[in-house]
C-alpha cells in the first residue's frame, strides 16, 4: 500500500473531524466551508497522486497523462461549481491553471513537468481550510 493514499485518508478524516467538532461553535456557514474543504482536499490529494503516477508511467502509457489531466479538469469543474467560498474557488482556479501548465509542458515534450503550481494550490487550500 502506498503512503499517498494513507496520507489522503488522513487529510480527509482530519478535515471531516474538524468540521464535525466546529459545528456547535460556528453554525451552518462554517460547516458548509468545512464540507467544501473536505471535498476539495480529497479530490486534490487524489488528483495530484494520480498525475504523479501518470508522469512516472508515461513510458508505458503516454496517453495516461492526458487522461489524468482531463479527469482532474472534470473534478475541478465540479468543485468550482459546488463551493460558495470565494477563497476555495480561487484556489481551485489556481489549481486549474497549474493543470493547464502541466498539459502545455507535456505537449511540448517535457517528460518531467513542474508540479509546483499544483502542490502550491493544494497547500493554499490547506491554509484556507485550517480553522
Number of helical segments? 5
Task: Give the biggest beta sheet.
Answer: none
What oligomeric state do the depicted chains represent? single chain
Q: Report Rg.
A: 15 Å
Strand content: under 5%
Mean pLDDT: 74
Q: How would you sum up the global shape?
A: elongated
N-to-C series of helices and strands: HHHHH
Q: Could you name the ranges where pLDDT drops below 50 across 5 or more consecutive residues?
A: 22-27
| DSSP E strands, number | 0
Draw up the topology in text:
Elements: H1 3-26, H2 28-56, H3 63-82, H4 86-107, H5 116-129
Structural commentary:
With 131 residues, this protein is an all-alpha fold. The chain has 5 helices and no strands. The protein has helices spanning 3-26, 28-56, 63-82, 86-107, 116-129.
Please give a quick description of this structure.
The chain is 83% helix and 0% strand.
Throw out a few tags for this protein.
single chain, 131 residues, mainly alpha, 83% helix
